[in-house]
Amino acid sequence: MSQSVRAIAPTLAVNDGIPSSAAAPSKPQPGTIPVVCLQPVLAAFNATNLASGYLERGNIPAARRKLVQALASVNRASEGGAQ
Description:
Layout: H1 2-8, H2 20-23, H3 35-56, H4 60-78
Helix pairs in contact: 3-4
């Protein structure tokens, strides 16, 4: 089995068939989230989902804490991702 893997491995290439300009665009696409803001946006999404789960179970204090975290993350994202 290891012999067949050795025979296949040299034929694989990392960017096979993808032009280098397509692999790493120099300008962000319109309508996308800037990389700097990505972590705060994901943190807000996660905290909101957790708050929803807490609300479903009737745990209002925990849901409130998570929503406060979500709003703080939204504020960080609107400031440009500064931590």
